[in-house]
TrEMBL record:
<keyword id="KW-0342">GTP-binding</keyword>
<dbReference type="GO" id="GO:0005525">
    <property type="term" value="F:GTP binding"/>
</dbReference>
<comment type="similarity">
    <text>Belongs to the GTP-binding SRP family. SRP54 subfamily.</text>
</comment>
<dbReference type="GO" id="GO:0003924">
    <property type="term" value="F:GTPase activity"/>
</dbReference>
<protein>
    <recommendedName>
        <fullName>Signal recognition particle protein</fullName>
        <ecNumber>3.6.5.4</ecNumber>
    </recommendedName>
</protein>
<keyword id="KW-0694">RNA-binding</keyword>
<feature type="binding site">
    <location>
        <begin position="249"/>
        <end position="252"/>
    </location>
    <ligand>
        <name>GTP</name>
    </ligand>
</feature>
<dbReference type="GO" id="GO:0008312">
    <property type="term" value="F:7S RNA binding"/>
</dbReference>
<keyword id="KW-0687">Ribonucleoprotein</keyword>
<keyword id="KW-0547">Nucleotide-binding</keyword>
<keyword id="KW-0963">Cytoplasm</keyword>
<keyword id="KW-0378">Hydrolase</keyword>
<feature type="domain" description="SRP54-type proteins GTP-binding">
    <location>
        <begin position="270"/>
        <end position="283"/>
    </location>
</feature>
<dbReference type="GO" id="GO:0006614">
    <property type="term" value="P:SRP-dependent cotranslational protein targeting to membrane"/>
</dbReference>
<keyword id="KW-0733">Signal recognition particle</keyword>
<feature type="binding site">
    <location>
        <begin position="191"/>
        <end position="195"/>
    </location>
    <ligand>
        <name>GTP</name>
    </ligand>
</feature>
<comment type="subunit">
    <text>Part of the signal recognition particle protein translocation system, which is composed of SRP and FtsY.</text>
</comment>
Length: 297
């Protein structure tokens, strides 16, 4: 599970804080220095850590904490509140148009991030909400990706629209809209091609899709295991094509988890869901407060 090492380290810092009757400014500063180290080791972006620590410090050195009967507890509470704030405070849902309209969602991400799996996971969630999703195979470079989407679609009981490998993704997206309208589907989820690294071709292809159809939500899938790279990727996608939200996959793995803490602060875009396993049911809504509790133990 992600955050294990961060959790252990923070709990150690907190144990020391709780043990002290009164807290001097120096005690708080020492504790926050340790919190800072722990966050950096968890692969949280440097800039984010700096801002976080100064926000906590500003509140933790004040009179309220000094005069409190349980100053250690108050500092811990402040760290908790600032962590929740860092992750965006509120839970954000994928925005959908009314069921009478067609909602088009475009999934983007690097190859291997978990995009195709997550696309099918999302379709399952939307179906459970009473929507009628259509999965669309826009990754025309990897026949295996089309096949994988078809298999996953079948598992979820959701139709998959494909035109094979010989059409442009933007044309496939357009044809999918016509198909969905005819077949009474009201959410279209486009599974686009990923590449190993961000490149101009990938970006222009996504922009072409956006120009061809009315994409309502662009959702980026990033892999938690890639740490700060995931955050850089999110920043670049947001700059180039504009994203509405992020899904972080593989948080079930042995990852330091920093991406979950940094993405919102770096991109300004919310984390919508987190991937917690390979099974199609392993997708959890992102609750900043629960995630903070998980981290603080
Ligand atoms: P794509 O290239 O981005 O479409 O990636 P895939 O959907 O093919 O996923 C790549 C690999 O990551 C597959 O083996 C998935 O089963 C796995 N995967 C995806 N999401 C998760 C997750 O949340 N947790 C774990 N453990 N594995 C995942």
């Amino acid at each position: 599970m992600a955050f294990e090492s961060l959790s252990d380290k923070l709990q150690n810092v907190f144990k020391n804080l709780r043990g002290k009757g009164r807290l001097s400014e120096a005690d708080v500063k020492t504790a926050l220095k340790e919190v800072k180290m722990a966050l950096l080791e968890a692969d949280v972006s440097f800039k984010v850590v700096k801002q976080f620590i100064s926000a906590v410090q500003e509140r933790a050195i004040g009179q309220d904490v000094q005069n409190s009967l349980t100053p250690g507890q108050m500092v811990i509470k402040i760290v908790n509140e600032e962590l929740v704030k860092l992750m965006g405070s509120e839970t954000t849902e994928i925005s959908l148009k009314p069921a009478s309209d067609m909602t088009i969602i475009m999934m983007a991400g690097l190859q291997g991030a978990g995009k195709t799996t997550t696309t099918a996971k999302i379709a399952g969630k939307l179906k459970a909400k009473g929507r009628k999703p259509l999965l669309v195979a826009c990754d025309v470079y990897r026949p295996a990706a089309i096949k994988q989407l078809q298999i996953n679609g079948e598992k979820q009981g959701v139709p998959v629209f494909s035109m094979g490998e010989n059409h442009k993704p933007a044309d496939i997206a357009k044809a999918a809209v016509a198909y969905a309208a005819k077949n009474d589907q009201n959410v279209i989820i486009l599974d686009t091609a990923g590449r190993l690294h961000i490149d101009e071709d990938m970006m222009s292809e996504l922009i072409e899709i956006k120009d061809a159809v009315d994409v309502h939500q662009t959702i980026l899938v990033v892999d938690a295991m890639t740490g700060q790279d995931a955050v850089n990727v999110a920043g670049m996608f947001n700059d180039k094509i504009g994203i509405d939200g992020v899904i972080i996959t593989k948080l079930d793995g042995d990852t330091r988890g920093g991406a979950a803490l940094s993405i919102r602060a770096v991109t300004g875009k919310p984390v919508l869901y987190v991937g917690m396993g390979e099974k199609l049911s392993d997708l959890e809504q992102f609750y900043p407060d629960r995630m903070a509790s998980r981290i603080l133990g």
